[in-house]
């Protein structure tokens, strides 16, 4: 996953990373299989838990220092 500094990504971006359809990603989020947070009417995927779920190494600026 490319780091842009964003703390969240859209469900569409998560779907692209997982190689599944947009509808499939929304269904997975509804089942709790993709970590999400709701901001108003927006459903966002927090990057750190998403990367952790995928088994990617997650580094923070504190660890890099």
TrEMBL record:
Pfam families reported in the protein's UniProt record: HTH_17
Q: Which domain of life is it from?
A: Bacteria
Q: Which GO terms describe its molecular function?
A: DNA binding
Q: State the name under which the record lists this protein.
A: Helix-turn-helix domain-containing protein
- Describe the location of the Helix-turn-helix domain by residue ranges: 10-47
Where is the secretion signal located?
none
Query: Which InterPro entries is this protein grouped with?
Result: HTH_17, SinI_DNA-bd
